[in-house]
Amino acid sequence: MVVRDRRLHGGVPARHGLVIQNMDASTPMRILFNHVAHASHAGKIHTLFVLCHGYAGIDRRLRVSMDAGGMGLQLGKEGVTQENVNAWTAIKNRVSNIVVYACAAADTQPGSEYTAADGRYLMGALALCTNADVYAADKIQWYHMYHGLRRGAFNFATWEGQLLRFSHDTGAGTPVSSVPVELTDVLNGLAS
Fold this sequence. Notes:
Oligomer: single chain
Largest sheet: 7 strands, mixed
Structural class: alpha/beta
Strand order of the largest sheet: 2-1-3-8-9-12-13
Number of domains: 1
Number of strands: 13
Distance between the termini: 10 Å
Strand content: 25-35%
Order of helices and strands: EEHEEEEEEHEEEEEH
Shape: globular
């Protein structure tokens, strides 16, 4: 299953067996939770891909984004932050893995531990709330689009920075070299 926030340019082409939930700034998170609940009636969803922008740091003096984040995910109306991550208990035990393709979702800059900018804490909390392993990176992610397909298709290529797996048991993040399945493989028919 793929959930994509439309503020991220591109699209996810329809594929047999792939459930796609598009969201935007007016879509309440409960819509996503309802779709996950419906899609999981036949059994636990193996992987939920989350495609959105991460709330990243800004150097206001230079007017540029920093390679820092951890402040949450720009997903739907509410976003995903430390203040509302507990709402994800609505899909607890319905998903095995959540792969977050968003900038610096798992970033925690020195001095940001235990603050609203602690991305490792947020991704760990997401893992605990959903009882799913969560995969996210600590740097800004780059992607390309295949323009030959209607609406384009995402290709995230390699992960930037350190990719971390946040355990559904403890919420702790540990470095890993890959995710259980990449979205590009699903879109190319190499995985389901």
